[in-house]
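Subject: Sanity check before I submit

Could someone independently write out the structure tokens for this chain? I want to compare against mine line by line before I put it in a report. The sequence has 237 residues.
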Amino acid sequence: MISLKERLQTVPNQAKLDEIVKLTSYPKKTPSLSSSVTGSSLLSAASTASSKSTADLASLRLVTLGENEKILAVQGSELQSRMSRGVIINRELQIREFCLNSESANDETVAEMKTVISTCSGIATHPYLVITPPLANADLPEKKEAEYLVAVSGKFTALGKILDSLKDGGEVRVGIMIGSPRGMDLVEGFLRGKGIKVTRTDGAGVRDPQVVESRGGPNVTLVLGGKAGARAIVVCS
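---
Independent answer below. Compare away.
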């Protein structure tokens, strides 16, 4: 979150920054991916799935920061918005104190600010990273698990729409970098519940072997990333 903020602050085009803030603010709707801002759909022309309908991606939008650098603006859920506000309100005094004199802040205040950032970052990815344990051990059908996971996360909603748009074509290899094993559990359960073939590289999964009948569409590999914020989706046809 910090590195992204610093990167955005270096963008000379103020209109782009205002646009990003507007697109990611709850509860405003975001325009289509095929809007005039990007001039193209989310899926690049190099992808074999680029000819697929992107009607289900209508709530997503790409914003170009510079050459070969884009941000996918994703609307958060109401739960994510409420939880984030709650975290900020509960630490309002500490946040004010830190912002008024950040250079002289003591170690305790700095630690509190890092906790606020880490918590809000987790909420922005999925509220279940903060408020509930992973669902991998729950006695719950994976399809139903996927429905619960997508219902409260804008990022999971967006990911689901992207992968759904790739289902009807040939096999597409997708790599997703994730910042924590807990996040791996959530994404794995979500993808399995959607009937998407998924492999995780950390070897920490606790689920039964996956059975997927179709060999087409997305074939996802989950990679445990390093830094917070170093998350990406890589698509190869």
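---
OP: Matches mine. For the report I'm noting this point. DSSP finds nine helices and six strands in the chain.
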